[in-house]
Amino acid sequence: NWTTGNIVDEQIGRIRDQVGDARVICGLSGGVDSAVAAALVQRAVGDQLTCVFVDHGLLREGEAEQVERDFVAATGVNLYVANEQERFLSALAGVTDPEQKRKIIGREFIRAFEEAERAIIEKAKAEGEQIRFLVQGTLYPDVVESGGGEGAANIKSHHNVGGLPEDMRFELVEPLRALFKDEVRSVGRQLGLPAEIVGRQPFPGPGLGIRIIGEVTHERLELLRKADAIARHELTAAGLDDEVWQMPVVLLADVRSVGVQGDGRTYGHPIVLRPVSSEDAMTADWSRLPFDLLSRISNRITNEVEGVNRVVLDVTSKPPGTIEWE
Ligand code: XMP
């Protein structure tokens, strides 16, 4: 009888057997998988675990706080936060090509994560301890097809290759390896994690960096965060979170169109809504959201987000369109 309670107990036992009294490190991305993996390890070995959160400044509104405040409150985990917003913005300055953005974000993420690891390793050394394990939120489907996954998955291939100093070569702890996404969510609920984290829709590792079509700047991120928060709030208020697989909100930063607002002409940017329904993100269809919901989102975004004077709906299936615009 494979209940969530069994899964939790069994995994805690396994983690204790594997880790013993050694120290463990775990990266948090803001997503479900890394949060649940970390919470399981925390239950199993408590203060032997240190989590690392690299805040790249490309998360949505409230997500960094969900990790730094709510996740910590729910689990009592030791958290090391690396505030790297400036670093990512300067690395992305002037870059518009999507693949280039992805490479830069991935590269900087690994560097920032390693610097954080280095700091934690040194602190442990000073206490006469050594970090021996790295937690990965690998799921069963990742094991099978070994693709995609959330931000933290990027770290994996890196840590498996040689070339790293001896004290940075870790053994992997993968407590979600036998689980599917819905099982991971119920384990997360069982462990008392915040609903916003457990119910979070898929969100790409490069974050809002690939939802700004054009150069990523501080102002554009602020603008997109506001528009995205409105769209997500209205979708949730309409009770449609479960119907929609994910709803990227995209800023066409290099496109402008003429509008009329308040007392005059505007020349602003369009926001694209990309709600899709899907089983596995390999194929998708555009979600037939109710017109009154779309209308509410459009009115609120154009009224409340300065610089946006038009909201458009993406009605393309995948294929031919991908879910993300970049
Ligand atoms: P596409 O745009 O290829 O997206 O239809 C399929 C799914 O993957 C997510 N996605 C990513 N996830 N890093 C990730 O961790 C990425 O670089 C990335 N790109 C796309 C996307 O949100 C969708 O769920």
From TrEMBL:
Keywords attached to this Swiss-Prot or TrEMBL record, sorted alphabetically, are: ATP-binding, Glutamine amidotransferase, GMP biosynthesis, Ligase, Nucleotide-binding, Purine biosynthesis
EC number(s) on file: 6.3.5.2
Name the residues that bind ATP: 29-35
Q: Cite the GO molecular-function annotations of the record.
A: ATP binding; GMP synthase activity
Looking at the keywords, is Nucleotide-binding present?
yes
Q: Superkingdom of this entry's organism?
A: Bacteria
Q: Which reaction does it catalyse?
A: XMP + L-glutamine + ATP + H2O = GMP + L-glutamate + AMP + diphosphate + 2 H(+)
| Function per UniProt | Catalyzes the synthesis of GMP from XMP.
What are the GMPS ATP-PPase domain coordinates in residue numbering? 2-200
Protein name, UniProt field: GMP synthase [glutamine-hydrolyzing]
| Range of residues in the leader sequence | none
Q: Which GO terms describe its cellular component?
A: cytosol
**Which residues of the parent protein does this chain contain?**
207 to 532 of 532
Q: In which pathway does it act?
A: Purine metabolism; GMP biosynthesis; GMP from XMP (L-Gln route): step 1/1
Keyword set includes Hydrolase: no
Q: How does it assemble?
A: Homodimer.
**What gene does the UniProt entry assign to this protein?**
guaA
